[in-house]
Design brief:
There is one protein chain. Helix content is about 35%, strand content about 20%. With about 160 residues, it is an alpha/beta fold. Strands 1-6-5-2-3-4 form a six-stranded mixed sheet, with helices on both faces. Strand 3 and strand 4 form a beta hairpin. Helix 3 packs across helix 4. The two termini are about 25 Å apart.
């Protein structure tokens, strides 16, 4: 169940994130958190940054606050790690808990978006362009957040 102020977004259930205005996407991981930001018209996503997270430690809210203050998004999309069978496990619960914390701290609307295959698609894109991923995991995490956000934006702009 989604926390107050958050929606589980699907193409059939668009979130209550206003338009226009920038949207921040968060692809949460245990070691790194990829961030992406939309343009004000909510058409194009681009990588923003990758935050580091120490294993077992809380989400780095202070590091995120810098980006929130600079870009002033109108909403946040959090990647929801859905299991291949469509169920939600502990990782999905953690993502929903993160959404609740972000909503409480920022008062911004939170939407969740299925993040399955975002990292794989980002890796594939880098390889297709002839790039190497070895030693560039932080960049790949930012690209995964971009893939996540672009999917969300495309679903709204149909």
């Amino acid at each position: 169940m989604a926390p107050p102020g958050a929606t589980t977004s699907t193409p059939d259930n668009p979130p209550a994130i206003p338009c226009p205005g920038r949207i921040l996407a968060i692809d949460p991981g245990t070691k790194r958190i990829g961030l992406a930001m939309s343009d004000p018209s909510q058409t194009i996503a681009q990588p923003l940054a990758t935050l580091s997270r120490r294993v077992g430690k809380r989400f780095p809210l202070q590091s995120l606050k810098v980006h929130l203050d600079e870009h002033e998004p109108v909403g946040i999309v959090v990647g929801l790690p859905i299991a291949p069978d469509g169920s939600e496990d502990e990782r999905a619960k953690n993502a929903r808990d993160l959404g609740a914390i972000l909503n409480a701290k920022t008062k911004l609307p939170i939407a969740f978006w299925d993040e399955r295959m975002t990292t794989a698609r980002a890796l594939s894109a880098v390889k297709e362009l002839g790039g190497r991923v070895r030693g560039r995991k932080a960049e790949v995490d930012g690209l995964a957040a971009t893939v996540l956000l672009q999917g969300f934006l495309d679903s709204r702009n149909r």
